[in-house]
Amino acid sequence: MSSTDTTMQSTPRTGRLVPIVVFVMAIALIALTPFLGNYYIRVVNGLLIYILLGIGLNIVIGYAGLLDLGFVAFYAVGAYTYGLLASAQLGIHLPFLLIVLIAALLGMLVGILLGVPVLKLRGDYLAIVTLGFGEIIRILVNNIDWLTGGPKGIARLDKASIFGIEIAKPVDFYWLLLATVLIVATIVWRMEKSILGKAWAAIREDQDAARGIGINTTNAKLAAFATSATIGSIAGVIFAASQRFVSPESFSLQESVLIVLMIVMGGIGNIVGIIAGAAILILLPEVLREFAEWRILFLGLLMIALIILRPAGIVPRSFGPERLMRGLFGK
User: What's the pLDDT tens digit per position in 195-223?
Assistant: First the structure.
């Protein structure tokens, strides 16, 4: 048997091994996390929040091919919506689910307002404008003391509750975040397979060609920004509710860059890749906490190695939910 035949036979086995490992790790995470201490549950909660943010930003970067470095602004919009509507800051104490709805609508509106001025921008120009937008939002919340509390932030936020069930403990937020991530991931995956998702893919490959075949690129881009912003705002609400405190330091440029790195390292345009990228960038620093002096250097070297060895990401775009099912069940 030739080496080519051997490769052809071994590749499917290797391809099936990866999704099985991913699936087993996901089941283990779901099953074991509630029985761990509060510290580990908080770490996993942070991971789930970043996965949610990664799924949101992936719509703009991975599906539509638009480089957005100001995504953290929508995260801040959601967090401060909860901070203002569920605290003594304005004397308003609205229910958690109502605030989620308000934040989602507000995030969608802000996403559209960002999308309109940048419709004709591409590449580096788009990245610079969105970066500036993110910094503008952070500077605003840092300086409007009478509304946002300025650098001190807003403390003593109301405890979240859903249908009378209080959500206050880390394990409560774990289940809330897990359910939210699963629902959002399913919706986004279905959107990718829809006509709108095909339009995003066409824009990603060639905007001029997409416009030439009759795709309304303006509406498609605005839909990408609006959907992405909505998810980011929802993540911000859950973050603020879990911390019961919100301040500008949580929404710096570094956060936007971290989310972009998660997508690039994990695999652009792939939800499974986002999970892999988030696991490396969020969990690995916690594992290496005892080596605080060296962990940043180690992470930097790891990023360089991954970019050189896996330029398409840990889990390339071709590895989607369909391939996961084929790997698990051999179909």
Answer: 999 999 999 888 888 888 888 888 999 99
pTM: 0.85
Angle (CA) 127 256 150, round 5°: 110
Q: Which residues contact 67 (CB under 8 A, 6 or more apart)?
A: 61, 123, 124, 126, 127, 130
Helix axes 253-266, 123-143, angle to 10 degrees: 140
Residue with tokens 């990603």: 204
Tokens of 171: 């394990």
Residue 167 β-bridge partners: 160
Q: What are the respective helix, strand and coil percentages of the chain, to the nearest 5? A: 75, 5, 20
CA distance 12 to 17: 9
The H-assigned helical ranges of 244-291 are 253-266, 271-278, 284-287
Both structure tokens of 187: 């919706």
Instruction: Give residue-wise pLDDT tens across range 32-54.
Output: 777 778 888 898 899 999 999 99
Q: Is the pLDDT of residue 112 over 80?
A: yes
Q: Which two tokens stand for residue 279?
A: 């696991």
Q: Where does the pLDDT of residue 1 fall: very low under 50, low under 70, confident under 90, or very high at 90 and above?
A: very low
CA–CA gap between residue 259 and residue 195 (Å, rounded) = 27
pLDDT at 292: 64
Task: Take residue 264 and report the two structure tokens written for it.
Answer: 């690039």
β-strand partners of 165? 162
Tokens of 7: 């490769």
- Res. 329: pLDDT tops 50: no
Beta pairing class for 160-162 and 154-155: unpaired
Residue 245: strand pairing partners? 155
Q: Does residue 136 contact residue 77 with C-beta atoms inside 8 Å?
A: no
**pLDDT at residue 282 in the model:** 84
